[in-house]
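Hey, can you fold this one?
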Amino acid sequence: MVANKWLMLGCASLAMISSQAFAQAPAAADDVARTDGPITQASDIVVIAGIGYRDRTDTPEPVLKYGTDYFQRFEPLTAGDALKRVPSVTFLSDVLESDAPQMRGLPPGYTQILINGERVPGAAADRSFFMDRIPAELISSVEIVRSSSARRTGDAIAGTLNINLRDGYELNGGYVRAGGLVYDDNELEPSLGLVWGGAVGPGRLLLGANLQGRHNPKQKKSLRYGDSPENNPDYASDDFDNREDQTDTRDGKDYSFNGTYEIDAGDTNFKLNGFYVKTDRTETERSFEYDDATAVTGPVPTGNLLSDNANVAKIDQENFSIDGKLTQNWSAGKTSLRVGYAKFIEDRRETEYEIGFDVDEGDAPEFEGALTQTDIKDQEFSVKLEHEVPLGETMKFVFGGFYQDKTRRTGIFEAESDDNGTAGFDWNQFDRNPTELAGPFGDLEATDGGDNRIKEKRRDAFALIEGDMGGLKWEAGVRYEHTKVRVTDYTVDADIASQSNSYGKLLPSASFKYALTDHDRIIGSVARTLRRPQFDYITPATLQEEVGDSDLLGNPAIDPETAWGFDVGYEHRMGSRGIVGVNVFYRKVKDLIELTNTGAEGSEGEGTFVYQPMNIGNGKVYGVEFDLSTDLGFIGLPNTGLFGNASWLDSEVTDEMGQRRFNNQSKYVYNFGFIQDFPTFGAAFGATYRKQGSAYSRVISEEVTTTYGADLEIFVEKRFGKTFTIRAVGSNLLNGAKREVFNKFDNLADQMDRDFDEYELESEKAGPVFQIMARMAF
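Sure. Predicted structure:
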C-alpha cells in the first residue's frame, strides 16, 4: 500500500510537471525525429532487405548492442531465444527452453537483468529473471553491458543484459504478425502480434500486443545404480537399481502488452512506459520406474513396474511494470526524474500422486498423494534522480540518487491425500492413472521456511565524470549502495521470527574507448560489483534433510558477495557496418556465500549436521570472448552476411572438497551462422549453429555434470513488395539432447570418501519445431 501511494504521488507529480512544460508544445508530425536518429517506418521492420549487424556503440562503457534486424529472421519467440545468438550467454534450461541466462557461464543470480534500463522482480529465489517471459516481438534491442557504471545498480558481477522495448519514437505505422508452430508431437500452437506507433496529441504513442502458444514435449530416461563406475567398472550389470521413463510436456499461453507515450519538446522530454505479461501454463509429467534396464511390463511381483507417478503443475504468473521519466534541460544543466513500480505474482498449484508396487509379498501397493500450493508476490517501487552539469566543452559531471522499496511475500503450503481405492496387481500403467485413486486433500500447512516476508530498502548515491576528447571517450565514477533488510518467517518461534541486517558497499568504476584509427579502437573498464544473497538463504528457518541427510539453517546476517574485475577488448570495423571484436575479462570474487557446518547435530541423528550459508569463500572468473558480424562485400559478396561468437570460460573456487569451477559454468559456448539475401527475388535464407560445453556442479551430497547437444536452426524468407514478409523456420533440427550424470551421497563425509548412495544417468530429448510466420505492415 505504501508503494502504491508513492507511485500515485510520483506519477501525479510527473504528469503535473509535464502538462505545464508541454502546454505550449506543438503537435508532433509523423516525420518528427529525435536527436538519436529518425523514426523507423513499420515497413522497414516487416521487410528487412539486407544484412543485420551488431551495432557499434559510442558510450565509454563496453556495450554490445543488437537490434531486431540481427535476430528477427530466425523468429525467436522470446528474449531468451534471442540471447542464444550473443556472446558468452549460456542456459542450463531444459531442451527447447531459454529461461535463466548465465552470462559468462556463471549462475543466473550473477547477471543483472534490466527492462528499459530498470530491474524487474521474478520468481526465482536467486533474484534472477526468466527471459522467456518477454516476447521477442516487443524488443527494440538487446544490450550486453560487460562492465558496470556508477549510473546503474551494481548487482552485475557477470555483467548486465538490458532489454529495450519499442517506443513511440522508434516506429511510425503498424504491423501484424501471425503464424503457427508445429511440434514433434504434431501439436499446433498460435503466434499472433500487433504493433502500432504514431503521433497522438503533442507526443507519440506506441502500443503492442502479443499472444504466444507455448508447448514443449520432452522424453526423459534415467538409469540408477548403487555405485559409481570409479569404484565399480561393471556397474551396468552388477549394481543396477532401477530405470525411470518419463514424459514431460509443458503447455500454455503467454499474453503480453506494452505501451509508451513520449513527448519531446526540445528542452523538456516526458516518457511513460508500461508492459504486462501473463502466463498460463500446465506442466504434466508421467513417470514409470522399472527394475529392469530395458523391459516394460506390469507391476511386481509378476512384472517389473516399481512405481507409477503422475505430476501436474498449473502455473499462473503475472509481470507488470510502469515507470515515468521527466527530463529537463535548464541553465544549471540537465535534470531527470524517474519513478517506477514493478510487480510479479505467481500462483502455482502442483499435485503429485504415486503408486509404489515394490512392497513385501502380500502387502497392498502403497499410494501417496501430495498437493503443493506456492504463492509469490514480489513488488518494487523505485525513484531515481540524476543531474548532469557541463564541465567545459569536453567533460560533464553527473550525480544523483536512487531509492527502492522492495517487498517479497512467499507462501509454500502442502497437504496430503489418502488412497481412495485399491491399486491391485492387475494395474495397467498405460490405461490407468494414479489420479483416479486420490481422495480429498487435508488442510494446507506451511512448509518449514515456506511462509515468510522479506522487505528491502535501498538508498544509493552516485557521481561520475564523463569525457569526450575526440578519439578518447571515458568515464570514471563511484556509487555507494546502502541496503536494509528485514526478514519475517512465520514458521519459526516468535523470538527469532523477525530479524534484520544492513550493509553498505562502495562501488568505484571506470571505462574508456580509444580510437586507434577510424576503424580500430581499444575498449577497457574496471569496476567493483556485488551479488546480493538469495532469498531462501536469509530466512531463519531450519529445513530438515535439505543437504543430503543433513539440515539447512538460514542466515539473515549474510552480506553480499563482491568482486573486482576488468574487461579489455579490441574492435575493428569491417566495411561500412561490419564488426569483429575480441575481449578478455577477469573477476576476483570475495565473500562467496558457501554452506558451512555449524557442528550441531542434524535432525536425522548421528552423522548428520546443520549447515548454514556464510561469507567464507573466494573465487575468480576469467575468459576470452570473440564476436563477428559482417557482410562479404570485401570479396565481392555484399549480400552474404556472416555472424558468430565464441567464448572460452573458466573459473576457480575452493570449497571443503578442494578446487572446482563455479557451479554450472560451461567451458565454452559458440554460435556461427550466415544469411544469404537475394534482392532481385525478394528472398533470403540462412542458418545458425550453436553449441555450449559441459557444465559441472558440486554441492554437499551431490555432484552433477551436464552436457548439451548442438542446436541447428534454418530459415527461408520471401518478401512481397514493401509491406509483406513470410518466413519458414526450423529449430532444434538436430533433436537437441541434454544429459546429466549425478553422483549422490548421504552426507559430506561419504562424499569425500566417495561412498556413493546412488549414481544416476539422466537423458532428455526433444524433436524439431517448425514455424511459419507472416508480417504485414500498414
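The first strand starts at residue 54 and ends at 56. Let me know if you want another pass with a different chain boundary.
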